[in-house]
Amino acid sequence: MKPFIVVADGFDKNLFEDLKNTNEFDVHPSSKITQEELKELLPKINGLVIRSATTITKEYLDLAPNLKYVIRAGAGTDNIDKASCQEVGVRVSNTPGANNNSAAEHAVALMMTVLRKTAWAHSTMKSGGWDKSKFTGNELANKKVGILGFGQIGQIVAKRIGGFDPEVQFFDPFQEGSDLSYVSKCDDLKKLFSESDIITIHTPLMDATRGLVNKELLSLMKPNAILINAARGGIVNEDDLYEVLNAGKIRGAGFDVYATEPLEEDSKLRSLDNLVMTPHLGASTEEAQFRVGEMAVHQLKEFFINENLLNEVRV
């Protein structure tokens, strides 16, 4: 019997058609399904490909006795209960690196949007206004940019903003330095926050980083500084963020990720005038989705046909 594969949260259209047409798998005909539909399918699923919309919990695993393999089409796997997967023998992989450039560029886009106030200006223009005097912004040129987490995405951000002639510092206990002349390492996180004009977050969500950016660090930021998070929700304490932004203690922020996703309709973050928000678009480019899908299809074939597990993620 062919392995039954379900793609739950969307996929590159052409790659999905190729996957459905392969003789090796029985593929569910839709590449995007509701959580209710997924629960109904779980008892039959052998391989499951998800993005950020689906969370693999113990409850889901209990409904999926035939599940052998879960692929997170992306890098972060904090939406997968990996300990429970290991207990029942379900293997987990991600697609590392496939959306790094997309995520880095989105962080830069948020940075520029907050600095130049383009989102707010656009809103008033659509409403018939011409409020030029209200939207005096700031340049990125010659600013001091602090990067929290200097893995692959953080390093790409540093390269992408290099043409603006910034001074870049990074904090990352696992990275020693950088080949870029304008980048230096900062060993003191409080110093990074107190000295930087822009802080951009690029660390994974794990026990050591959950709630790491809190009132203490936010209170150290310059009054004209901005905070960017296109990494993972939960790294920034959102109650503390709200207090700082609502009081106008920093200039503004740009966020693509939230502790709870989708963000609640009544979230107080939505009321802030100095916060630019996007709905977790970091990996949402055609190029990134093709690379992610290509890796996922290859991993499915390697696992079920060649018994070869690629890019395994464990607790």
CATH superfamily of the largest domain: NAD(P)-binding Rossmann-like Domain
CATH architecture of the largest domain: 3-Layer(aba) Sandwich
CATH class category label of the largest domain: Alpha Beta
Output the number of helix runs: 11
Bulk shape: globular
Oligomeric grouping of the chains: single chain
**Percent of residues in beta strands:** 5-15%
Summed up, the domain count is 2
- The gyration radius over C-alpha positions equals 21 Å
Helix/strand-derived category reads alpha/beta
Domain D-isomer specific 2-hydroxyacid dehydrogenase catalytic: 14-313
Keywords: Amino-acid biosynthesis, NAD, Oxidoreductase
Protein name: D-3-phosphoglycerate dehydrogenase
Domain D-isomer specific 2-hydroxyacid dehydrogenase NAD-binding: 108-282
